[in-house]
Design brief:
single chain; 30 helices; alpha+beta
Amino acid sequence: MTDPERGADDGAFDPSPPTGSDSPLIGDVYADILSHMLNGVAYCRMLFRDGKPEDFVYLRTNPAFHTQTGLGNVVGKRVSEVIPGVRESDPILFEIYGRVASGGPSEKFQTYVLGLQQWFEVEVFSPHADHFVAIFNVITRRKLHEEALQQAQERLEIAQRASRSGIWDWNIVTGKIVWSEELFRLFGVDQSASNASFESWRSALHPDDRLAAEDRILAAVRDHAQLFSEYRIIKPSGEERWIGAHGNTVYDTQGQPLRMTGICLDITERKRAEANLRLAAAAFETQEGIMITDAQGVIERVNKAFTLITGYSADEVIGRSEKLLHSGRHDATFHATLWQDMLCTGAWAGEIWSRRKNGEVYAQWLSITVVRDDNAAVVHCVCTMLDISQRRLREAEVAQLAFYDPLTGLANRRLMKDRLHQALAVGARTARQGALMFIDLDRFKSINDTLGHDKGDMLLQQVAQRLTGCVREGDTVARPGGDEFVVMLAADLSQAPAEAAAQARIVGEKILTALSQPYDVAGDVYHGSASIGVALFGEHRVPMDELLKRADQAMYQAKAAGRNTLRFFDAAVQQSLQMRSTLEAELRQAVQRGEFLLHYQPGFDRTGRLLGAEALVRWQHPRHGVVLPDDFINVAEETGLIISLGRWVLEAACAQLAAWSTEPEMARLFLSVNISARQLHDQRFVRSVLEAVDRSGADATRLKLELTESMMLEDVGDTIAKLQALKARGVGFSLDDFGTGYASLTYLKRLPLDQLKIDRSFVADMLTSPRDAAIARTVVELGRSLGLTVIAEGVETWAQRDLLAEYGCHVFQGNLFGRPAPVETLRQQARRPCVESHGASDTPLAAPADRS
């Protein structure tokens, strides 16, 4: 028969050995071996079409072929007949068999034959061209086992990944450790770039946990115990995680450890949850009482603070309604509204009254939070409570301290202002008058100085009681501080200011009478009085601060009027005070801007020769022109500006002396400067005078400082020391207004004086008053006896000058010889020839005396 396929007529399988074999019996040996092999064997011829394997014919098979494949009577048949469709279902077989039959090397492979539904492990080789022998085993069971094992491994890996756990196996003998893939991920280690080892595990441990983790492993191995260990690791990324390790050790028959196998779990979330639970437990046991109820208000749990606050133990309240805590002070509507608000907003907080186990009702701050389930249904209410009864007491104490005077219990300044603010608003709204009274105790300082502050406090308490008894319930009595009290008559007096003033006067006089009654101060009887200033307020609203000022000003007017009296606010006095306040502000600016200048009043001897001058300050006001000292010196003294102003005068006078030193007719003149008491007692006085002299380069012997008798009465020793220090530098001194004060002759002897000045008040009337003439003559004689130059000031007539000259007076100063004038006028006087007396005359040569 013919077959277009290559090798179609090869005939039956020939078991004979290849040509050239040494023994003809070898074929029988091969046949016997093949028939007894457990492996299936098939000897086949490959059929090719166009050089490609298309089919093959079974030429011979062994018994195991039938046993393993279940196929029989296949010899001489094509595989496509035996297993229909095999060419399409298993093309890999034809590819491998064809490659080997075509002279390729032997191959070994595994394949699944779909037509037989079996797995085969095949080894194929070619004994002749176009022929191959396939030796195979059915490995279906093994493959199923491997697949099952693979699936189990995959499931294990999935489970490890899901549970964040990894498996490890430590060979204790060799030290080798095997990690699962998930364990590498757990430790954040790249499996391909790192080998598992004891050291890599150890290096991943947190330094603080490393020693304890190692000790637990060694203890588990030593004690034949299971390993339970928890520790922290630090991943290469720097992230810190908690690990829980569990393991078992395997031992040999002698009890020597062989290996330890276990798992590692990521327990970070559990650790966090435990920390949160501990925190929640700690929070639950706070100082705030906590009560948890169900949706119906039945108590399920309470903390210790709840027991401390309410007196109920947990066993006494769990399972009971929270209504057992109701005080009875809130009605059903209150509780219904509370519940409704809580359901709408999910929370409620506020102050309520609650009841303790002993029946005591107390103030409580209650906060309720609603807990809902996934369906938004209320399942629990968490109530936190604070006992605020003590806080209420403390608040009352704080309010007492904040708004009341601790000594007298009267309203303090803060509460007084608050009530005054309200009264002003009422007065403006109703057009009715009210009255504010400032009350100052007269000579209160004396009781503190003589009897002590304790008794002074007792007197203030009695005054507070008397004041309270003089006013109505709606009025306010306050003690802003010290010995000052304030009474505010509510804005319900008459709308007519005159009638309201009369009503206020009645109350004021009642207060004066009450406060003038004797006081029993711890057994001592004290008689006192008070000065009261009253300011009305009403329809025309006055700012509160302005009203307080008015009452204060009126009180000082009462004191000025002789004390133990009452005065109402006077607008004219206020205007005067405002003018003084304006003057003070402008004076401060003038000192800063240097708006001052000096005028000079000359002094002549009996021959008419100019000896020197007195420097007198003038204020060159930008709006008012030249202002004389009488208008601003007192303000400068009271405000302390006299220190700065006096320093300027000294420096200007010294500079003028230095300038005169270059002028022949002026160089011999002395220059007097008036010194104030505040300047003299300033600790920097000596230094400021010497600095002015040194800076200017003036001759200190030409500088005369004029002092008044009153300055000597305060700290005489310090005054003498300062004057002597300046005297040592050549500075001279003149005692001004002598005879008007209380200077002691002893002091006069101790003071380093150069001149005495007869006050102008004695000079003015000496021609008509024998007493003034006698005083003037006495001063001259005293000066002569002490070796002092005597200067008469305020000389207005030649008759005064001649009489003073007759007494022996040395120097004369007054308008007879010249008013205070700029320095150029003094220069002109220095150039004039000496002027002798024109004889007795009562005709003044100048206008009345300029005292400045």
